[in-house]
Amino acid sequence: MGKIAIISDVHANYEALKTVLVDIEKRGIEQIYCLGDVIGKGSRPNECLDLLKNCIMVYGNWEDFFNNKMYSSDLVKKRYELLNKQLSKENKDRLKSLPLCCELYISGRLVRMFHATPSNAWDNILGIDRIDKIYKQFLPTKYTSNKIADIVIYAHTHTQNLMKLYNRTLINIGSVGNAFDIIRNKEKDGSCENTTNADYLIIEGEINCKEHADIRFEFISLNYDRNLELKESKNNLELESYSKELLTGEFRNVKKYKDNFDESYYDITKF
Ligand SMILES: [Mn+2]
Q1: Which of 89, 166, 209, 214 counts the highest number of beta carbons within 10 A?
Q2: What is the pLDDT, as a whole number, of residue 270?
Q3: CA of 153 to the centre of ligand 1 (A)
Q4: Residue 72 has what pLDDT?
């Protein structure tokens, strides 16, 4: 049996990433997969990329935005310019070379990993979406091999989740540096400390093995020094919303998110 660690959505949160990497090293896990959004929001994107030199990485929406200069407003243009100043040439080149998906076999299962969906790094699948939308997460696209995946690992929504569908397993690994919970209701919410830790996933099984064998999934949630991260957050364009997310787990764009949601089949404001 071997282990791999899968991390995502570091969002330039250096303290959270260091805490996770120390934990991974303590467990003797050598191979780390990173599912994108290493950059954006936090203040130390270059330092985070430097720590992740040996990871197998796919790109997230933030890397896509940076690589393709996807400005939609002055604020987004400012974000780009700041990142452009912060990142080394080596790291910029690396971001440009990242694939959308990666795959391997573990204990006989085809495991496919990507940031949001196997088609692009932006679409939102909450794990509570319609069955056909979730099933599509397993299907091949032009970015994958031609097989249907047995296990899909993704991130993007920053909320851990595991569900089964048609004998297949869909796992959201959550976020290392920007964990939040989209569905909020002041009367029903538990402690925000249940949400704002540095989260990642470990899979234990026969790595690169096509024969069926035992497999284990372990969700890890680590406390880290949020106040030190905020103290070190120099040159942050959106420090107020970043602080709120780190300390309370409340997503800055929750209103926009609700507006984009297809309420004909699911109204998250009712929960
Ligand atoms: Mn993200």
Answers
A1: 209
A2: 42
A3: 15
A4: 80
In this prediction, residue 268 carries a pLDDT of 44
Write the pLDDT tens digit of every residue in 63-75: 999 999 998 889 8
Domain range annotation of the chain: 2-270
Q: How many helices (H) and strands (E) does the chain have?
A: 9, 10
Tokens standing for 263? 């309420």
State residue 20's pLDDT score.
98
Q: What is the mean pLDDT of the chain?
A: 92
> 83-110: per-residue pLDDT in tens?
999 999 999 999 999 999 999 999 999 9
Supply 153's token pair: 């690992």
Length of the chain: 271
Q: Which of 44, 37, 77 is nearest to 59 (CA)?
A: 37
> In angstroms, what is the span from residue 58 Cα to ligand 1's centroid?
13
Question: Distance, CA 102 to ligand 1 centroid (Å)?
Answer: 18
CA of 9 to the centre of ligand 1 (A): 5
How many whole angstroms separate alpha carbon 246 and alpha carbon 165? 32
Cα 149 to ligand 1 centroid, rounded to whole Å? 23
Q: How far is the CA of 177 from the centre of ligand 1 (A)?
A: 9
Q: Please tell me the predicted confidence (pLDDT) of residue 269.
A: 43
Q: How far is the CA of 158 from the centre of ligand 1 (A)?
A: 6
- The pLDDT of 141-160, averaged and rounded, is 97
Distance 29 CA to ligand 1 centre (A): 24
- Exposed, middle or buried, 143 (CB in 10 Å: 0-12/13-18/19+)? middle
Residue written as token pair 């957050």: 233
Contact by Cβ (8 Å): 209, 222: no
